[in-house]
User: What shape does this take?
Amino acid sequence: MVKKEYQIIANNFELAGRASSDIKKTLKALEYSKAMIKRICAASYESEINVVIHSVGGYMTFEIINDYVELNIYDDGPGIFDIQLAMTEGYSTANRIANTNGFGAGMGLTNMKRLSDVMEINSDQFGTHIRLIFVVGDLDALS
Ligand SMILES: Nc1ncnc2c1ncn2[C@@H]1O[C@H](COP(=O)(O)OP(=O)(O)OP(=O)(O)O)[C@@H](O)[C@H]1O
Ligand SMILES: [Mg+2]
Assistant: This one.
């Protein structure tokens, strides 16, 4: 069993991706398949960037529990105004600074949904909590 926690700082593009890199390193050391690592780290990266560009800061927990990996991402406000709309491909409220850094295509949440086996979003004006579960599946064992 593994449990790690990472702080995510709003608007800090230099440190963005740090949590995902450490998760990748940990999963590699534990000999998870490339496919499983890619799935988890692409999703964790998207969620990390969302905290950086859309919130005032937060943190992510990374846990390995038996045959699944769980990520929980918490941030402080302003929250996702309309979750269904936010889940639409191409919808984005990212600002110009985020755009300049290469973000804001409106694909992050959609990709997280596709990459994970379970995705739960809870959000109000005080903040957002996203829970992601990744189960080692048949496809994950192939590469
Ligand atoms: N943690 C969050 N807090 C507040 N709003 C959020 C948060 N995450 C996502 N959103 C809202 O949902 C929209 C869609 O998010 P999504 O990650 O799909 O796209 P994006 O971050 O705008 O662009 P991309 O992920 O492609 O760089 C965001 O533009 C934002 O309005
Ligand atoms: Mg995003």
The chain has one domain: 2-141. The chain has five helices and five strands. The pocket of magnesium ion (ligand 2) is lined by residues 46, 49-50, 108 (CB under 6 Å). The beta strands are 2-8, 58-65, 68-76, 118-124, 127-135.
